[in-house]
Amino acid sequence: MDPSPPCPPSCPVPELAVSGPLPAALAGFRSVIELPITWGDQDAIGHVNNTVPIRWFESSRIALLDHDEFRRLLEAAGVGPILAAVSCNYRRQLHYPDRVLVGSRIVRIGRTSFRMEHVVWSRRLGCVAAEGDCTCVLLDYAAGTPRPISAELVAAVERFEGRPIERAGTAG
Predict the structure, then answer these.
(1) What is the pLDDT of residues 11-21, one digit of tens each?
(2) Are 106 and 115 spatial neighbours (Cβ–Cβ below 8 Å)?
(3) pLDDT for res 57
(4) Which end of the chain is more exposed for a tag (fewer CB within 10 A), N or C?
């Protein structure tokens, strides 16, 4: 069995920070948060509702994008990300009580958009319970138009992720 990877960089939201080593399934994720499954996350069938992992993806995505350097660059440029698409593959049913680790990473950068991958790991089940991806567009909210992703932001993402990021051609 592979040794557990070290904890990810410190989470900008302390109450979401993960304690202890990460499971191997989250080894490539530099942004990981921990969330409780609440009683209200369940639906009438008694398992976590299908919309909840997508909300967890959002919380993890925001934690990643709230990294100091990203926030500084986005604010300076007067832009921010907006969700364009999201998908989720459900692998296991989840139930209260449990805690989940939710990882997010940026895997591809286009001209005006970037793609992220997400994984939900159940502490109780000891496995991946859901995985998905999303596409975000860098938007000038005042003008309502997409803006190109700067070379400085690409470099910051690669430093944070600790690896080169796949680049799209000129398509956004």
Answers:
(1) 555 556 787 88
(2) yes
(3) 98
(4) N
